Amino acid sequence: MSGRALRVGLRVPPCAPVGDLVAFARDAEAAGLDQLWFPDSQLLWRDVFAVTAAVAAGTERVGVGTAVTNVATRHPAVVASAARTVGEVAPGRFVLGLGVGNSSVGPVGMSPSTGRALREGMATIRSLLAGEDVDFHGVTSRLRDPVDVPLHLAASGPRNLRLAGETADGAILLSGVAPGPLAFATARVAEGAQAAGRAVGPTGVPITVSAYCRVTDDVERDARALKPVCVEIARNGGGAALAAAGVDVTAPERVEGVYPDLVHAEDWDAAVRFCDAYVSDEAVVRFAREFCLVGSAKEIDARLTELAAVGVDGVFLQHVGSYDLPHRLLADVARDVLPAIRSR
């Protein structure tokens, strides 16, 4: 196991009035969570920077981060200014998580950021937050009153994983906790870091793993709710990784009757029914056991111990759904998961 305690975070969709989000954050802080991660999608939720600023002002210790914002719907200069503002509210507690912008771009007919756009956007944000001059199409500008904010890159494909290792202050892995895909992802981050002369792990680029989590004694019953997640992974190029883990999934060419997409469905039950034709109950149970943290508290603790042993610095846990706060997951993690982690 690594010498540092595994940091445990929680994904919190900004799906409620800001006062409710701040109250939830205070509960999470009191429960001992290390980090709260807020996703960004302008039509689905409240504005992520307004929310993280409010949460940062309403808490004292817990880390706050975006998971993730983007440079497609938001200009890099706008991202830098917003990040500077939240960083000023919570010195040392705010992490700027960036990604390609899937759930932000899709509902407005845009495409996710290309690798080049993401690289250039990150470089611009970094320079602005460092107080450096930046050239914008022949106009040289800088950010007044810059604040140092760590930039973490969320990635699943090999190019962006290498980019995270090369240039980011941390990598957010979207591959889940299955040993094979996790080893592949961390190896790509390491390649990028080594190419840039950087280290990985406890003394280098921090690794945070995103995973769906459910404390349950009936995996067969509760895994069914993960079908939209499993199918969406297959649709986004993860079919080979699923197959290698023994998860048989067919990727539909089109998704019909589900808004806005499978993993952000407003009607989750409808999304599950749609996915019944593409992944069996047996296959999704295997997916839950291999790629997710689904099982008894003892089983989840064992998986977290394994993650720490291979150099993962933190996890951020997700519940199914995007339009309710993860009260049950927080309660389960606080009662059954955190005590075991803290006792090690």
Description:
The protein is α/β, with parallel strands linked by helices and 344 residues long. It folds into two domains: 7-214 and 296-343, Luciferase-like domain (TIM Barrel), CATH 3.20.20; 217-293, no CATH class. Helix content is 45%, strand content 15%. It has 13 helices and twelve strands. The chain has an eight-stranded parallel barrel with strand order 1-2-3-5-8-9-10-12, surrounded by eight helices. The chain has a two-stranded antiparallel ribbon with strand order 6-7. Strand 1 (7-11), helix 1 (18-31) and strand 2 (35-38) form a beta-alpha-beta unit. Helix 1 (18-31) crosses helix 2 (48-58) and helix 12 packs across helix 13. The longest helix is centred in the C-terminal third of the chain and has 18 residues, at 227-244. It is globular, with a radius of gyration of 19 Å. The N and C termini lie close together (10 Å).
Measure the end-to-end span.
10 Å
Order of helices and strands: EHEHEEHEHHEEEHEHEHHHHEHEH
Low-confidence stretches: none
Determine and state the CATH class of the largest domain.
Alpha Beta
Secondary-structure arrangement, i.e. CATH architecture of the largest domain: Alpha-Beta Barrel
How many beta-strand segments? 12
Total number of domains: 2
- Structural class label: alpha/beta
Helical stretch count? 13
Beta-strand percent range: 15-25%
The gyration radius over C-alpha positions equals 19 Å
CATH topology of the largest domain: TIM Barrel
The share of residues in helices is 40-55%
Mean pLDDT: 95
How would a crystallographer describe the biggest sheet? 8 strands, parallel, barrel
What is the global morphology?
globular
Write the CATH homologous superfamily of the largest domain.
Luciferase-like domain
Tell me the strand order in the biggest sheet. 1-2-3-5-8-9-10-12
